Amino acid sequence: MAEFKLVDGKAVLIHINILHFKHGNNIAPEMKIIYMTKIIRFNPGLVTGLLIVATCCLLDSCKKVNVNLGTDFVDNSTTNLVLVDSTTLEISTIYVDSFMTSGAGSILVGGYSDPAFGNINSNSFIQLGAPASFSIPNGAVFDSLELILTLNKTWYGDTSTPYSVAVHRITDPIKLPGEQLAFYNTDKCDYQSIALGSKSWLIRPTITDTLSIPVSQALGRELFTKMFNSDATLTQNDLFIDYFKGLALVSGTNNNLVVGFKDSATMRLHYRNPGVISTGAYVDFGINNTANQFNNITANRSGTPIASLGAANRQIFSPQTQNAGFSQFISGAVAKIRFPYLRNLLQLSNFVKIIRADLVIKPVKNSFTVPYTLPPGLRLSQTDQYNLPGTDLSASSSSAGTLATQYGNLYIDNLYGTETAYTYDITTYLQEQIAKTDINKDGVLVLDPNPGQRFDRVMIADGKNAEVKSQVKIYYATVK
Description:
This protein has 480 residues and is mostly beta strands.
């Protein structure tokens, strides 16, 4: 026990108790509770500030913690402020069977091998439309056909290795299956086994703007002949789509990179006009309907800590996966965090209310080395027993009290890696949860801000991880 005297209207009293609560028929994990009186300055009955001071012998590290309790935390001689900083989190990995990928504005092509999440691969399907207009003069000569892809400056993986894409002709019309209203990551189209063209590059996504893939000369001449003859197939869009179903953009088998492209892919037919000095010209076949552009994304998790995750095993708890939760929505895995022992605080006879709560999410040490980078931000989406994303957790973002979605304010510890963390104010959420009387499976899903378009991933350490631990810090008021 450490005791500090009252000085100039400020006082601190700190001691630690290790409590065990009964949860159902089981004894819940221990909860370290640090009791502190308020250090506070008063102006006729109003609170103007609060400072909690803890010494190294009482907490895991020497820290000063500023907690703003607001003016409704009334000073009197009967109130303590208590910090719980080791209550048990329940962390698990949830299986995501499908998500929408059409109409998202991004063509994703590539693949890579990740020792934690598996072999990830993405192919994309696009539907082209007939040219807006063209006029091929007599004597014009076909030159070449190419597919032009414009990078959207998103990528994931190793840019130092060759990256390749093959272009195949789709054999069936791109149309929604059954009663679906959109295309999902599990959807795909059949395509011809022989590619119309392919190419390999060493690309630099930050400076490379476009990629060009040479396409079959035979197809180019066929299209050129139809245009020269003003064939209705090339002048009426419906007829063209029936004739040319679309393209499959297929990742090379040895890729270690996924690249994002804008959904403005263009197949360009080049020809040369007649004359003493021949001049070049071209006709573009652009995307017909962005709603019919979608990505097929697969993950083979064999040999990974989450190998058993799937339709038959939709949730795996962190003790089974090296004391970590795995979150990469786009590959079908998302971490869920619950606070199953929160209501044990109500068993304390002197408990009044939660004043503040902070969630600190720590990635597993050495799990985010290049090229497996962390998401720059992560949002927490409320969920229940069905594990579907709900409302994101928000917090006041200004003195005006405007609420905004929280993304964790990622801090990178470049020296030791143990203090790398995302931090969230979950006060309101836990105040709502502790007030619930029903037994539930409520929690939060850890999601990328743009989960169906980005491959950034995170492995979240649980409270039993050997090197780093995620934790929730709960400050609550008690009556002496």
